[in-house]
């Protein structure tokens, strides 16, 4: 086995009602906190009030920045960082889905480093970012525990991926009660994104012993609980297990990397606006069917993790069961199954495939695809 580096936040605070602990956690970093969140969802659900109340109860001064759009822009990151500097903010509290987390990570870099955010796509910042406490309200991206942020430059139509260990949140506070307000379609899409993280980390050529254990546990938790959470959002056990599953999937993929599903889903988001989780969900079964011959033993383990009866089956048979089980799970979520529903046509496939082939994640895939093979996978779900 080759060596590996494994990085996650130094402190994970996980449990129902634990949003109340945000203030105590924040106090360790100073006296002024800025809450970075979106415009509506966390206000409407009461999550923002809960976080602010906890911070104030712990004696912190609170600055609210409730302006983050989905796919946060360079401008919003610069605006938030300027406000944080002006107010003497000691710690950022990122509250919401992936977008507020991404925005806060960008702000954290600019609070401690010179220059524009675009510079740090290519070079590592000199200083660690300002401390972040990440409080997710969705269960999928696992941005609360990763070293990645994606910032959009709308004029240049560019999505910048910045990878920097200095933006891993210092504390992740995961409270399943905050995820209860997620509607079924978002629960399904974010949950399938998490399942894709776990699957891709497990079969990734960059996986290691730690990520494999976490990925398999994540697959089991998500397999058992995703459809339950979609059907009944108030099912607290399902919500808790989904939040745990997506976090474990996050530990796994942020250290083992993702693979061909993510390579192929990114162009679908960039060119056709297909939401990330939905695009991954559609691609997961056909990409895993393509990968299966190159990782038969792992796919057989996946069948077991998904609770399929595999006793007496050969590895090949069990691996085929896994592909069928992933497809059945996807179908039960009720997410769209066809790319044409989003305006994708046969003539757009070669350009999508070219982008997917050029993506860095493709090299982590256990079976390296050709352009023709990628086109064939897109065509199979057109
Ligand atoms: Fe993802």
From TrEMBL:
Source taxon at top rank: Bacteria
Stretches assigned to the Alcohol dehydrogenase iron-type/glycerol dehydrogenase GldA domain: 9-176
Cofactor: Fe cation
Domain Fe-containing alcohol dehydrogenase-like C-terminal: 187-381
rRNA-binding found in the keyword field: no
Swiss-Prot/TrEMBL keywords: NAD, Oxidoreductase
PROSITE patterns hit by this protein: ADH_IRON_1
SUPFAM superfamilies on file: Dehydroquinate synthase-like
Keyword presence, Oxidoreductase: yes
Any Pfam family matching the protein: ADH_Fe_C
Family: Belongs to the iron-containing alcohol dehydrogenase family.
Protein known as: Iron-containing alcohol dehydrogenase
Organism: Oceanidesulfovibrio marinus
